[in-house]
User: Which sequence fits this backbone?
């Protein structure tokens, strides 16, 4: 019984998985809304105002291949997660304040069950280089990233993202198994 309990604990510990998407294994070119990277099948990417997603090596604006939300419009990058995640972080570039003619803020919104549950934003350095990170920690089934003004209103600027990191929240049944395995270990010791 002790072996079974230890195996169960080891199996459960491995279920809180992290995904890393750097788009390096994806074919370059235009991709349709609902795109899923071969790097992480747990994230579905969409452009909220059209279908202007493109994978390319954006030089200093990405680290190799990156994902652009093209079309100098007020669109956002929507990321729907296959299961809930406890955090989402991504690196971004193309935050050129000179092109926009004003300050560029990076914004991220977290959703759960269709409701906004968190939001963060900060004034980007505006240097047009992939050298800043934004993220949220909580419980999310979707998130959006975009460039905006200080009030959170989207601006017309192409977002380029890379190195998207998420950590999956284990399914509710997994926590029950963990509790059961703890009882089995405790019972075996008596």
Assistant:
């Amino acid at each position: 019984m002790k072996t079974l309990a230890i195996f169960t604990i080891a199996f459960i510990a491995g279920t809180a998985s992290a995904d890393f998407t750097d788009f390096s294994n994806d074919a370059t070119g235009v991709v349709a809304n609902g795109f899923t990277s071969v790097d992480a099948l747990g994230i579905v990417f969409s452009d909220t105002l059209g279908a202007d997603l493109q994978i390319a090596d954006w030089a200093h604006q990405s680290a190799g291949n990156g994902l652009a939300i093209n079309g100098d419009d007020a669109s956002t990058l929507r990321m729907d997660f296959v299961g809930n995640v406890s955090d989402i972080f991504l690196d971004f570039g193309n935050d050129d304040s000179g092109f926009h003619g004003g300050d560029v803020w990076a914004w991220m919104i977290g959703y759960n069950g269709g409701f906004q549950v968190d939001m963060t934003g900060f004034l980007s350095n505006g240097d047009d280089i992939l050298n800043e990170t934004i993220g949220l920690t909580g419980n999310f089934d979707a998130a959006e990233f975009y460039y905006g003004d200080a009030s959170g209103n989207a601006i017309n600027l192409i977002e380029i993202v890379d190195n998207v990191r998420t950590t999956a929240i284990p399914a509710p049944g997994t926590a029950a198994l963990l509790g059961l395995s703890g009882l089995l270990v405790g019972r075996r010791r008596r």
